TrEMBL record:
This is Alpha/beta fold hydrolase. It holds the Pfam family Abhydrolase_1. InterPro entries: AB_hydrolase_1 (IPR000073), AB_hydrolase_fold (IPR029058), AB_hydrolase_sf (IPR050266). Keywords: Hydrolase. SUPFAM superfamilies: alpha/beta-Hydrolases (SSF53474). One of its GO terms (molecular function) is hydrolase activity. GO terms for cellular component: membrane. The lineage of its organism: Bacteria, Bacillati, Actinomycetota, Actinomycetes, Mycobacteriales. Residues 30-272 form the AB hydrolase-1 domain. Signal peptide: none annotated.
Length: 293
């Protein structure tokens, strides 16, 4: 199945009032929405192309490309805010009204968790890959976030390579092909400008000040509202979102379980592919009613 899926063969698009949202679709069955992370040159396809075939054997997989990352229409807002707004609009636009399984990598996990908090009727089961929660023991922001900010302020090829290495446990994952495809999209002027809204040093400071001034309750203090059964997946050696961040969601989400993968960085679905797919498929296909009897 995996070898049959191609970028062009799975590519789709749909018009919304956020602009044209592009996505990849494969497989049949219950809907499974896959949400990508952030960072230079990221796309949903690049996050999930290696595992899409495995999930497409069981689910109707929908890999959404968030606005502002160089694939869907760019939009004029903050990338995280646009990402959050795009989920409901996308599902409505393609006619899905029933709850869907969601897998979110890093920022995509935060987006999916926010949907589970604010629109619980949208989410069947939730899977996160690092990213959510709050540092308990490790200092924040993590090394990978600092390197991401450095690259955004000064986008050099060397800076991109430093950031890519912070994402993984095994340096061999950072191939020349990976570097080149990330560099090409990350340095596209509009994509770089939009990234600066989120990850530049100036944006970090402005966003922190705005959050403090607003007095709004952060999402990590509302994790108890997540009703969906949740699987938290984490690389033990994650240098972007250290594994101690998992403590809060593991404790506060009422029906959460945690799977930590050794010798693995931030990209669990890439570095621990076989073990990760096995754990996630077992979780998503489990009959919760039978399990709770």
């Amino acid at each position: 199945m995996t070898s049959e899926l191609t970028y062009e063969g799975t590519k789709r698009e749909v018009a919304t009032d956020l602009g044209v949202l592009r996505y990849h679709e494969a497989g049949d069955g219950p809907p499974l929405l896959l949400l990508h992370g952030s960072g230079p040159g990221v796309t949903g396809w690049r996050n999930y192309r290696g595992v899409l075939g495995d999930f497409a054997e069981h689910f109707r997989c929908l890999v959404l490309e968030f606005p502002g990352f160089g694939v869907s229409d760019p939009g004029d807002g903050h990338p995280m805010m646009m990402a959050g707004a795009s989920v409901g609009k996308f599902l409505d636009a393609i006619g899905i009204t029933e709850p869907v399984h969601m897998i979110g990598n890093s920022m995509g996990g935060i987006v999916a968790t926010n949907v589970a908090i604010n629109a619980p009727q949208r989410v069947n089961k939730l899977v996160t890959i690092g990213g959510i929660g709050k540092n308990v023991f490790a200092p924040g922001p993590g090394e990978g976030i600092k390197l991401l900010s450095e690259f955004t302020d000064n986008p050099t090829r060397e800076g991109l390579i430093r950031w890519l290495h912070s994402m993984v446990y095994d340096p061999a994952v950072v191939t020349e092909q990976l570097i080149e495809e990330r560099w090409a999209l990350a340095t596209e002027p509009l994509t770089l400008e939009i990234a600066a809204r989120m990850y530049s040093t100036k944006a970090f400071a402005a966003n922190a000040a705005a959050a403090k001034a607003s007095g709004a309750t952060p999402y990590w203090a509302q994790l108890h509202k997540v009703q969906a059964p949740t699987l938290l997946t984490w690389g033990r050696d994650d240098r972007v979102s250290p594994v101690d961040m998992a403590m809060l969601p593991m404790r506060d989400i009422p029906n959460a379980e945690l799977h930590v993968f050794p010798n693995c960085g931030h990209w669990t679905m890439i570095e621990a592919k076989q073990a990760w797919v096995s754990a996630v498929l077992a979780f998503l296909t489990r009959d919760e009613k039978a399990n709770n009897q």
